[in-house]
Design brief:
By secondary structure, this protein is mainly alpha-helical. The protein contains 13 helices and 8 strands. The chain is 51% helix and 6% strand. The N and C termini lie far apart (40 Å). It binds glycine.
Length: 383
């Protein structure tokens, strides 16, 4: 088993090295032999950029390769200007996987300055009436002030980290309030998730739940479910609030009940076209990392979560890992960016990133701890 993981790790580092030599823009999706960048018209177009820096930093930590380190520094510095960009809810993804892990892996705390500024920029998106971080901005056509989404749960680690580092409780407090709202507004009673919650931004009342990247408003988009699982487990790790743990457990149980035999999710757990529809290898990779995070905080059930995570990772290695690329390539095949938008059957930079994070957890717990363990556990008292 571990031998598989070692081979996959070497392959991932080689592929990252080749991509570093070839890429001129931050990559998002890989198809027909080339990487495509995401559109950058809106600030939110940058949401994927931290996955490339995260890959470079982890590949460097495994290999010690000076070229990977200077690549990681170069691409991380290219993100610094976004620290004051209040127009995106994804500063957590962007800065946690660039500046924060740069500081943790190199021991050079000057990397943290931009991450801290980004965290204090992100909390400007908090709506105190609805108690949520706003996902998108009005675009001249539609009004978005009332929308939050499940993906946002993954941006909270940056806020908890910022409070840990500074002792200023505001970011952590907002993260916890947002997570409480998301639990009520986006997690259903059966442990599945909706993608988007639509509030009246003035009264703060929930109007409806919606699905933009899943099959229908009542269905469960598999990557959204994975963001939720990982996000709630992280919230519990930082706060010890029991409801966050029980929510993460319920999300994991729903996931287990809806995985296909090879454990790599279809793009929506409730698509009526299963099995004749698309997989999302990125949902599998994020789920593995979410299970590892859950295992770290749920000692009683840790072997159950880790056992599943390991089997999912083995399946990714055996069936979804690209072994034969000679030029630039994604690491995994068969991601699904958005099936409703007709974007699927490609490699995805976030699938690749979480695959390497998962391999790191199983092969090098020392690197994993250094990159991801909070500076101090349990910032806030539990309830
Ligand atoms: N925006 C996050 C995702 O597509 O998964």
């Amino acid at each position: 088993m571990t031998a598989n993981f070692q081979a996959a790790l070497q392959k991932s580092i080689e592929t990252t090295r080749r991509n570093l030599g070839a890429l001129e823009e931050f990559p998002e999706s890989f198809k027909h032999g080339e990487w495509k960048a995401i559109e950058k018209e809106r600030a939110a177009g940058h949401w994927v950029d931290g996955f490339w820096t995260g890959l470079l930093w982890l590949a460097y930590a495994h290999s010690g390769d000076a070229l990977l380190r200077s690549g990681a520094e170069h691409w991380t510095n290219k993100l610094a200007h976004l620290k004051t960009s209040a127009g995106t809810h994804d500063l957590g993804f962007i800065f946690y996987l660039s500046h924060v892990i740069a500081g943790r892996l190199t021991g050079d705390a000057t990397w943290y300055d931009n991450g801290l500024e980004a965290a204090f920029t992100l909390i400007q998106r908090f709506n105190p009436r609805g108690e949520y971080l706003q996902a998108w901005d009005d675009d001249g056509i539609r009004k978005w002030a009332g929308r939050t989404n499940i993906d946002l749960m993954m941006n909270l680690a940056l806020l908890y980290w910022a409070s840990d580092i500074t002792g200023d409780r505001r970011p952590a407090d907002i993260a916890t309030r947002h997570a409480r709202t998301s639990r009520v507004a986006l997690v259903r009673g059966d442990g599945s998730t909706a993608h988007v919650a639509d509030f009246n931004p003035q009264s703060g009342l929930l109007i409806r739940r919606e699905q933009y990247q899943g099959y229908s408003h009542d269905s469960c988009w598999s990557r959204g479910q994975a963001w939720a699982l990982y996000g709630f487990a992280t919230c519990y790790r930082y706060t010890a609030i029991p409801a966050f743990l029980t929510t993460a457990q319920a999300l994991a149980d729903y996931t287990i009940g809806h995985l296909p035999a090879d454990l790599v999710p279809f793009w929506d757990y409730n698509s009526p076209h299963i099995p004749d529809t698309y997989r999302d290898s990125s949902a599998a990779a994020v789920t593995v990392c979410g299970l590892v995070e859950l295992a770290a905080v749920d000692g009683e059930n840790a072997s159950r979560w880790l056992g599943l995570a390991e089997r999912m990772l083995i399946s990714l290695c055996e069936h979804f890992l690209i072994m034969d690329a000679a030029g630039p390539s994604s690491i995994l095949r068969n991601g699904a960016r958005s099936v409703p938008a007709n974007l699927m059957e490609h490699g995805l930079i976030y699938g690749d990133y979480y695959f390497l994070e998962a391999l790191t957890a199983f092969t090098r717990p020392d690197i994993y701890q250094r990159a991801f363990a909070p500076e101090s556990a349990h910032l806030a008292p539990g309830e």
